[in-house]
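Handout, section B. The chain below has 362 residues.
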Amino acid sequence: MKLNKLQKNDVFGKKVLLRADLDVPLTEQRLIKDDSRLRAVLPTINFLLENNASVILVGHLGRPEPSSKFIRQSADQNLNLSLLPVVEWFNDELRINPPVGGSELKIEEVGEFEGWKLNDNFCVLENLRFYKEEEDNDPEFAKKLANLGEVYVNDAFAVSHRAHASLVGVPKYLPHFAGFRLLKEIEVLSKVLEDPLRPLIVIIGGAKIETKLPLVEKMHKIADYILVGGEIAEQDKILLKVQSEKVNGRKPVLLVADLTENGKDITQKSAENFNQIINLAKTIVWNGPMGLIEEDFDNGTKSIAEKIAQTKAYSVIGGGDKGGYLKKLGLEKKISFISTGGGAMLDFLSGEKLPGVESLIV
């Protein structure tokens, strides 16, 4: 896979449309709970600004009801998904304007869109998913986005499994490049697939068996151990074992956790069994929690996270709000690599092509 890498000569003094993953979790007061995804794009932003580029930052937040063509939806539930908290974060982080409390950030027209011009070299467009044409990959919508810039950069690995206008449409109209974070994600996950240190242990959790089965199948060909927890463990234990039996040749050890009586976490015994195997690992890949951590059923997830942090194995973790959860436990610096992607990480490791990445291939 050959992607155009950012070079000074390609962006110096130019208007750059930068697609980033701005979909951060918010509190009820609309404060950012975990800024990991925003921090992940800072190296690319800083590189562009240092090279005198003007950055037009674009992305989405949540799942708003999309509007009719090019008209911003004014429904309350959509305004709650405005990117203003993200804009305030970048304003403070990049120290562009005085603190927000001292100067109000006002939305204004940016080409045919709405956004915030923080200064002459940095602006952020409003939530792209306010527009129906974004998810429809409408070519006219993509062209109007492309008209804002001279160069396109994708640094949004976490949504690159989506064939949306800002990911696959815009690169058709502009010189295009991969951002630093996107390249790092591909480098790390490719090494897991192609040349992992062994034993390689893959831990799969979560609730959606239809998204996990392709990963189980793919990992059977390269993993030494596959540990399955979460809601999928109990509901689809037979299906997982049938999937395992279909694989010819070498087979990893497949261990499926038992769930607690309420079905919202794995049992302590299963967590202990998993942790014994984790002790053997040289490489660990983990996608999806072991229980409903959003409802505080996180004993299994916490136990496994702590065990991984104690090992010397190379660890790659993604899926759900893993970055925020690990930060809450104070473990994020003890993990080798925390992917910004959930579904994108799953698809990549399952051997699927990511449309947002494919559109960047030279």
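Note. Confidence is low (pLDDT under 50) at residues 70-76. Compare this with the example in section A.
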